[in-house]
Amino acid sequence: MMSVITKNLVFHAVILGSLFVLATSCNVTGVWRNELGSVLHIQVVGSELRGLYQSAVETDPGATGPEQQAKILGVVNTRGLQTSVAFSVLWEAGSCSSWVGQCFQLPDGRRVIKTLWMLRSISSSSADNWKSTRMGEDTFVLIS
Hints:
Residues 1-25 form the signal peptide. The chain has one helix at 4-22; strands at residues 30-33, 39-45, 48-54, 69-77, 83-90, 96-105, 111-120, 133-142. By secondary structure, it is mostly beta strands. The model is unreliable at 9-21 (pLDDT under 50).
């Protein structure tokens, strides 16, 4: 029969082991795809995040440029319980998009980045300013 002390040690070891799994940082370097088919190429150097965003969608034809891609620039923080990211894209036609979120390692080993995004389109006048900002969410899944 286990003593009370042994049971407490086992219980705390299980709890601490679970916390250790939760606290594992998530490497965001790689190629990611979101639910719309856009592809995000990320390279992390220190706390800087750089890469390329290949958009699968546009608000207006040509808004993202002829290649539908742009450079990304951002930051990454691996000091918390989960890796957090923030990055932006300046599209060729002048609009800009930004994402903020966190990378999670799932129990099956897959990694995902859950983000909220904001797209600021060019407004032709201050009267049209109200319709120039869109917001949403993306989930990026690591593909390579």
